[in-house]
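Memo to structure team: turn this sequence into structure tokens by end of day. - J.P.
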Amino acid sequence: MRVIRLWKPYLVLSKFTDAAGRPTLADYVDVPGVYPAGRLDYDSEGLLILTDSGALSARLTDPGYAHPRTYLVQVERIPDEAALRALREGVLLKDGLTRPAEVTLLAEPPDLPPRPVPIRYRANVPDCWLRLTITEGRNRQVRRMTAAVGHPTLRLVRWAVGPITLEGLQPGQWRDLTAAEQAALWASAFSRRDRPAHRSRRPG
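Reply from structure team:
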């Protein structure tokens, strides 16, 4: 079994081909037989797991198994306790109530490389960073959640999938998981035996 962790750059598709000629995973990963376990939006950055194991991919992407994904999220303005509580308790979106999220307001911006297209600076609108962990993956879910509580997302970086993180990578770089990392990811994915009745849409 082969499992790879990749830092998908901004404005790169989470697939290997594109008829329109946009950048894809093929521009960064030249490994036959591996496919992304899940997706990450074109305008989002961060961790993608690629594998040749159908069983692992299915377990990571099936929303019924509530596998955690952690994001670093730059948002407009500073959320108050009511906004943070709403994220923690569940946000009502057009496709239903989200599962509760784990949310931390970061005291300092995370140590991330600058985005190729900088965030537009607005002197009269402060921003801050959140660390947010969700266990479902509806389409553009994090962006919709923060917007619903009044804090639109400016930059979105997926930092972790279960126990696997971006640590040691830069945008566009990938590494094979070590045997210990594979074991930890496998254990995390297959320790979640419950399949909640609520099922979200696409993993993301």
